[in-house]
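Section 5.1 Outputs to date
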Amino acid sequence: MVTSIKTPEEYEEESYLKVYPNPSDNQITIEIPKYLVRKSSGHGMTATTIYHQWKDVRLEVFDLFGKLMFCETLPQQKKSVTLSVSHWSPGMYVSRLVLMNEVVAKVKFIVE
């Protein structure tokens, strides 16, 4: 018996990357979303695919100059990554999640 179904459309926040603490001067934790939403368009149409399962996904972190600071391929079972940022320059960084060569989630954070 199914009593309820949580869909990503109703719980959009479950498809977001989360970073905490933000800002940080020591370490950050990046939480991987429960769902991955991939949007593609072509021929005047847009298709949205919601992934509940995937083999792996690539987590990338860039500084605002485009320098790659971190990159790791993560299996779906890995729910979060903790990074030491104490040696990074102060400023804003962008973290993104890449599935099948498309960015499916991104978030900005600040290193103090």
